[in-house]
Design a protein that fits this description.
Order of helices and strands: HHEEHEHHHHHEHHHHHEHE
Number of helices: 14
Distance between the termini: 31 Å
Oligomer: single chain
Structural class: alpha/beta
Largest sheet: 6 strands, mixed
């Protein structure tokens, strides 16, 4: 489901030891976690986000606001994912299969679950049929979450983006929209079908799962975040975990190391699932000889 990916999206012994050390040094304050790495002339704040929240959700803290106030740059996973006009051609190119219906790719059990899930979220089954499995999975996950009162427009990234524009901060991205979509679209079809199958099993519990994840995130509970965002996907969907978490975290760590070689203060906001677990961005930075501390 998309919550699995955003908690990873839609997350080695040395790395694990580094993460345990960070957690042991963590403050007890119940607020979203914030990390920092710096050198003589550069500071990079790392902040884990939740992409959808209920309107009015409270998550700000004095530490977060101070870090934002010091920063001249906001760095996101991707810019433009909230622009339907920009996304439409990408979804058509990578999310639609004109040659075969979705049902034709599924076994009898998943076809029954697909029909039931569509009914549960109020979608006509025909609307899902042109979709490739990965896009159907994301669609079926978002529908009950929005129905339960969550709003992508209230997600952390959009709030931070609006503030950055108002403050005149530079806004950059670690990935393009096409790259992010292709992380899912380029998965082998069997992996996509496994992703959809897992989503079909979780449709009815999607909002409740997200409630638990948001509470863990808001209180800065790293152990609960790892359990919610990482463990199941790493155990049950290793191919998806490799693509959506490990490979992306490695690429981001390389970009952050290069950024640290420059100067200035940057606030980097990425999905919270990428900042917990043995393959986190912090663990990858530690492998590159960079020390990350929790604020």
């Amino acid at each position: 489901m998309i919550s699995k990916l955003f908690r990873l999206a839609r997350r080695t012994l040395a790395a694990a030891c580094a993460l345990i050390a960070l957690a042991a040094a963590a403050p007890a304050a119940a607020e979203p976690a914030l990390w920092v790495l710096n050198d003589e002339d550069s500071t990079i704040y790392l902040f884990g986000t939740v992409h959808v929240l209920r309107p009015g959700a409270q998550w700000r803290s004095a530490k977060i606001d101070r870090a934002l106030g010091e920063s001249s740059e906001l760095v996101l996973e991707v810019v433009g994912m909230d622009d339907p006009q920009a996304l439409a051609p990408l979804l058509k190119a990578y999310g639609v299969d004109p040659g075969a219906s979705l049902s034709a790719k599924l076994d009898d059990d998943d076809r029954r679950k697909l029909a039931a899930a569509a009914q549960t979220v109020g979608l006509p089954p025909a609307a899902l049929e042109p979709m490739r499995p990965w896009l159907a999975a994301l669609t079926l996950t978002m529908a009950p979450i929005v129905k339960a009162g969550y709003d992508p427009q209230s997600g952390v990234e959009l709030v931070l983006t609006a503030e950055a524009k108002k403050a005149g901060r530079q806004i950059t991205a670690l990935e393009t929209a096409e790259q992010q979509i292709r992380f899912f679209a380029d998965m082998p079809e069997e992996t996509q079908k496994a992703f959809l199958s897992a989503t079909l099993d979780d449709v009815e519990d999607g909002a409740a799962q997200l409630d638990r994840m948001v509470e863990a995130w808001r209180s800065g509970d790293l152990a609960a975040l790892e359990a919610a965002f990482v463990e199941e996907t790493r155990r049950d969907y290793p191919a998806l975990y490799q693509v959506a978490v490990i490979e992306r975290n490695r690429a981001w760590a390389d970009q952050l190391k290069a950024k640290l070689a420059g100067s200035g203060v940057s606030f980097v906001a990425v999905g919270a699932g990428h900042l917990v677990g043995p393959d986190s961005v912090q663990a990858e930075l530690a492998k590159r000889g960079l020390k990350v501390e929790r604020r």
